[in-house]
């Protein structure tokens, strides 16, 4: 979808301030209220705006550990792969899952209360997911950049 500058401006504001009122948004992007409202609705209907959400403070929620877990599956069996993905989806502490190129099949972002909790998640759950033959974990020492917004230019 080709975006004009006003649509880019709307998206830029909404990425960081999803609860902004239509009145304030219209003022920030230089539109009157009705056209601004229509543009936002069109962006939602087109699928460019998928959802509105609050960004939560992971540490304040008691989730002190962030790990990136590389997963290797046994031979790509469709049934086991679907079962693996269903297990990933069901585990709330896995907050991201990416199919990867290279030597590993998937990369998981896992959050845990502490190292004991992560150990339990990895050894009692992830290692037992269907098709998993190996996992390698790396731990985040500090989030240097953790944007929620996407580039719009």
From TrEMBL:
Keywords: DNA-binding, Transcription, Transcription regulation. Pfam families: AsnC_trans_reg, HTH_24. InterPro entries: ArsR-like_HTH, AsnC-type_HTH_dom, Dimeric_a/b-barrel, Tscrpt_reg_AsnC-like, Tscrpt_reg_AsnC/Lrp_C, Tscrpt_reg_HTH_AsnC-type_CS, WH-like_DNA-bd_sf, WH_DNA-bd_sf. It comes from the Bacteria. GO terms for biological process: regulation of DNA-templated transcription; response to amino acid. One of its GO terms (molecular function) is sequence-specific DNA binding. The keyword Transit peptide does not apply. Gene3D superfamilies: 3.30.70.920, Winged helix-like DNA-binding domain superfamily/Winged helix DNA-binding domain. It comes from Sediminihaliea albiluteola. Residues 3-64 form the HTH asnC-type domain. GO terms for cellular component: cytosol. The keyword Transcription regulation applies. Transmembrane segments: none annotated. Signal peptide: none annotated. PANTHER family: LEUCINE-RESPONSIVE REGULATORY PROTEIN, TRANSCRIPTIONAL REGULATOR AZLB. This is Lrp/AsnC family transcriptional regulator.
């Amino acid at each position: 979808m080709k975006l004009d500058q006003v649509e880019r401006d709307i998206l830029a504001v909404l990425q960081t301030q999803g609860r902004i009122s239509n009145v304030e948004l219209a003022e920030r992007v230089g539109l009157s209220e009705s056209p601004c409202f229509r543009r936002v609705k069109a962006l939602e209907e087109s699928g460019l705006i998928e959802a509105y959400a609050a960004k939560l403070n992971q540490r304040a929620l008691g989730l002190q550990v962030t790990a990136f877990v590389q997963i290797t599956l046994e031979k790509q069996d469709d049934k086991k792969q679907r079962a693996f993905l269903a297990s990933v989806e069901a585990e709330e502490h896995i907050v991201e899952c990416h199919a990867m190129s290279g030597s590993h099949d998937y990369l998981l972002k896992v959050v845990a209360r502490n190292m004991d909790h992560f150990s339990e998640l990895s050894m009692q759950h992830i290692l037992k997911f269907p098709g998993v033959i190996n996992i390698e974990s790396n731990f985040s020492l500090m989030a240097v950049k953790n944007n929620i917004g996407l580039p719009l230019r």
